[in-house]
Amino acid sequence: MKWTDVQDIAMALTEAHPDIDPQYVRFTDLHRWVIELPGFDDAHDRSNEKILEAIQAAWIEDSDY
């Protein structure tokens, strides 16, 4: 996965952190959790606030909260 694979990342985060309400996740934690995902293979410094916002929004949509 790359930073641009927003939907795939969101689904993986839902599976990896099922008890977390994504709307309250800090971007520092979100960044760390994304780079820790199995299959994530992109430069850690290629993310930005816009990408993290898109991932968080997709994760909110994908979660049960």
SSE map:
Blueprint: H1 6-16, H2 27-36, H3 49-62
Helix pairs in contact: 1-3
GO biological process, one term: iron-sulfur cluster assembly
GO molecular function, one term: ferrous iron binding
Protein name: Protein IscX
Task: Give the % helix.
Answer: 40-55%
Kindly report how far apart the N and C termini lie.
25 Å
Report the uncertain regions: none
For the largest beta-sheet, the strand count, sense and barrel status come to: none
Number of strands: 0
Chain-averaged pLDDT:
96
Order of helices and strands: HHH
CATH topology, by name, is Arc Repressor Mutant, subunit A
Radius of gyration based on Cα positions: 10 Å
Strand content: under 5%
Whole-number total of structural domains: 1
For the record, the CATH architecture stands as Orthogonal Bundle
Tell me the overall shape: globular
Q: Helix/strand-derived class? A: mainly alpha
CATH class: Mainly Alpha
CATH superfamily: IscX-like
Q: Can you count the helices?
A: 3
Pfam families: Fe-S_assembly
GO molecular function: ferrous iron binding
InterPro entries: ISC_FeS_clus_asmbl_IscsX, IscX-like_sf
Organism: Pararobbsia alpina
